[in-house]
Amino acid sequence: MLEPHKLKQYDIIIAGAGPVGAHLAYLLSKKGLSVLVLEKKRAPGKSACSGLISLRLKKLIPLDNSFVEHLIYGATFHSKNTYLTV
C-alpha cells in the first residue's frame, strides 16, 4: 500500500468511461482540472452508446456518416403526469 503522501490527488474522479464519462473528463481536463476516470470493464462492450450521436459531436470529432442508419429530428420524453417534446 502506498503511503498517503505518495498518493496522487485528483480534482475530479469520474465513475464510468462510457461516452458521457469520457466526454466529461475531456471537458474538465480542458478547464485545467486533474481528472481520474474509473471503469470496471476491461474492454468496451458491443456498443459504446445507445446509438444516438449529438450533432455537437461532429464539431469535436470528424465522423464518417456511412454508418448512420436513421436521422432523428426530435423526441418526446414522458413521465407520470407530463411530457416534453424537443
Q: What would a concise description of this structure say?
A:
This protein is α+β, with helices and mostly antiparallel strands.
Draw up the topology in text.
Blueprint: E1 12-15, H1 19-30, E2 35-38, H2 57-60, E3 76-78, E4 83-85
Parallel strand pairs: 1-2
Antiparallel strand pairs: 3-4
Looking at this protein, list some descriptive labels:
single chain; 86 residues; alpha+beta; two-stranded parallel sheet; two-stranded antiparallel ribbon; 2 helices; elongated
Q: What does this protein structure show overall?
A:
- It is a single chain.
- This protein has a domain at 9-42.
- Helix content is 19%, strand content 16%.
- It has helices at residues 19-30, 57-60, and strands spanning 12-15, 35-38, 76-78, 83-85.
- The longest helix is centred in the N-terminal third of the chain and has 12 residues, at 19-30.
- It contains two helices and four strands, in the order βαβαββ.
- The chain has 86 residues and is of the alpha+beta class.
- Strands 1-2 form a two-stranded parallel sheet.
